[in-house]
Amino acid sequence: MIWWAEQPGRAQSERNAIGDLAESSPWLVNVEMRLVGTQLAFDFDLEVGERTIPLTLVYPDFFPDAAPSILTRNPELLSGHQYGPSGELCLEHRPDNWTPDVTGAMMIESAHRLLSSEYETGRPAPADHRTTRAQRMRYSAFRFLFSRDTLTGLGSLAEGEVAEAQMQEQDVAGTYVAQLSRIGSEDAPLWSETKKRGGYVRSFPAVVVRVPGGCGRASKDFDELKALLWAHGHSGLATDLKDGSDLVGIVLFDGKRIHVPMVFGDPGARKLISYDAVFAEADGVRLDPEYERLKTSKVAIVGCGSVGSKVAVQLARSGVGSFVLVDGDVLSAGNLVRNELDWRSVGVHKAPALGARLMEVNADCTFTARTNPLGGQESGAMAAATMAAIETCDLIVDATADPGVFNLCSAIARRAEKPMCWAQVFGGGAGGIVVRLRPNLDPTPLTARQRIEAWYAEQGVNWPDDGSAKPYEDPGTEGVPLIADDADVAVIASHLSRFAIDLLARPEATTFPYSAYVIGLSDRWLFTAPFDVRPIDLGASDAWGVQPGTVDIAALKELLADLTTKKNDED
To answer: In degrees to the nearest 10, what's the CA dihedral of 453, 454, 460, 463?
Structure first.
């Protein structure tokens, strides 16, 4: 897009306005129009006091919908309102308040007002805008995260006290992010970080120094740090740092502020890097207060594939405190088109890999990973242990779309009277179904499934015979992958997560009038348009739990007698 070619009239008016300004203003001289690549630009000089300041006005490609820039032609810091020595001036007209009726001539006038006022007063002009923390940190490559808990740990040291410590650091997209992982020795820590960063981190020794209030300050080089330590009675530490060769993090805390220099280099020629301290505490409540209940909830995710992995991460983000993750499969490269996991987990069993991902999202959650497939060809003892682990959960989520696994999950849910949710994504981007079942409020899982199948039949619309996965068809029977993209799966998984959260956060009520919804993502099958949603009335509840009268008392007595006799014979 070349705006001046598309709008030559506006370009001509811009040129005329700058020419008129130069004619009427003796402080604007030597105006010349040129191209910088394809961008229209005007070089000009401002006469400010006894100085002549060479500047350039550059129009962006999206002018007049975007603001022009005024930059110095000689790299120097002209003003406190400038983005670095080679950067543009921050003027009255900026991207945050720009309107298309502002002209380049008005920008030049603004630049003159800024520079002349600062020249006359010798002080920076008053600022009428605020920069965000993210803007201030844009060029910071080293950052130190701390929280209220970190401040509590640092505050446990008395003024003047020095303690050994450990830091951990992670390279994230070229930014080095560090944390204090403990204060004190490894065997007897005074304080430990409970929310450590996930993924690959490197650890290195650190020293925490509690300095008097108001005495903490940043050091521009090692000599300044050494002088600071000497001034507060830590000459021995300063000498050890000077003569050492190891990488050592120094955490200076004065009761309020944290300064973190990293010391490195050869003995006697030590250098330092300063980290920007970043308060990493949550900045406000983002979840419904009812979600507090999720912290004590335990959820079984049976199937850690495309749907299950997304549901697990969404529940972890919502605060669920514990998971049982069941999947016997290994993540392959082909799974990455839909799974929540990434290349770092390819070749790893899905269940433990997903568990590690959950802890990256929610450091407070815990998980148990079961790598035997439920209903697979495994030892009976291993299968029983997995089913027992599922039974301990407050909610069972079947994300496998496998009829055999569904039957086993259904049996556990019915017998233990535990709520169950499940979903299935239909092939070809058609949509999917989400279901939630509450003990003694909704039908048991097998009954619910029969009623859903009957509802499908009542619609009188045949499933497209194009090889797509049909409702309740086993996707693994012929080894044909499900045709659906990540967005298709994410829609169905998110609705399933909403069901799960509703069950856990509001056990005595619900925001959903129905317990099953068929969700359309295209105009296929019975759907008339994308986002066509059809609720299914599952009807009355039936027999949850182990029903009275199903136990053969006589047979049970006979079995116990035989076992007792056998035990006595062995003794």
So the answer is: 10
Closest among 4, 127, 108 to 54, alpha carbons compared: 108
| pLDDT value of residue 472 | 59
At residue 142, the pLDDT reads 92
* Mean pLDDT rounded to a whole number for the chain: 88
Q: 342-365 as b/e, with b when 16 or more CB fall inside 10 Å?
A: eeebbeebbbbbbbbbbbeebeeb
Contact 214, 182 (CB under 8 A): no
Alpha-carbon span 513 to 436, nearest angstrom: 11
pLDDT of residue 318: 95
The pLDDT of residue 556 is 61
Task: Among 300-314, 317-331, 423-437, name the one with the lowest average pLDDT.
Answer: 423-437
- Per DSSP, the residues of 532-569 read -EEEE---S----SPPTT-S-HHHHHHHHHHHHHHHHH
Rounded CA separation 146/178 (Å): 9
Quote the tokens at residue 57: 């006005």
- 6: enclosing H helix or E strand: helix 3-6
Q: Which amino acid is at 549?
A: G
106 Cα distance to chain centroid:
42
Report how far residue 406's alpha carbon sits from residue 446's, in angstroms, rounded to the nearest whole number.
9
What is the secondary structure of 69-97 as a DSSP string? EEEESS-----SSBSSTTSBB--SS-TTT
Burial class of 534 by CB neighbour count within 10 A (0 to 12, 13 to 18, 19+): middle
Q: pLDDT tens digits for 11-52?
A: 999 999 999 999 999 999 999 999 999 999 999 999 998 899
- Is pTM beyond 0.85 here? no
Question: For the chain, how are helix, strand and coil distributed in percent, rounded to 5?
Answer: 35, 25, 40
Measured distance between the N- and C-terminal CA atoms of the chain, rounded to whole angstroms = 93
Over residues 463-478, the mean pLDDT reads: 58
Is the link from the previous residue into 289 a cis peptide, with omega within 30 of 0? no
104 forms beta bridges with: none
